[in-house]
What does this fold into?
Amino acid sequence: MGATLDLLREMFPGKAMLTADDVAKVLGRDGNRAGREAVTAGLRRGDLLPGLRKVMGRWLVPITALADWIDGLAEPAQVSAPPVGPAPRSVASQPRHAMDAPRRGRLPNKVREAQRRARANHFMGEVLALLEAKSLRATLQSV
It folds into this structure.
């Protein structure tokens, strides 16, 4: 922790607690608003420095906790890092079906329309099956 903590103390002299913007700067995510918001979201979810809480409505991160967390990220890679090979290629030759779209946020209109059609077809199939069963039952009872 010594080297990381010393580096953080050089970056933020006299600060024992860092804000979310300071953490974004350390992680290299301070270039734009989206990067700072990603760091804030990571703090909120507990992905970055688990167990932290807001203090008086602001994220305040102890500088020692950030140094420990960063050192914890670096240690496993140094101990036994498997050889890194090329990333597996995805099968791009097969077209993606509209129903295979990822489920994050609002669905595209094509996907929502395909889902509506699938539900309608399923419902009509059930209705027709019930009607056929009733007419078959009525035919059998009349015989």
User: Anything to note?
Assistant: Residues 108-142 form one domain.
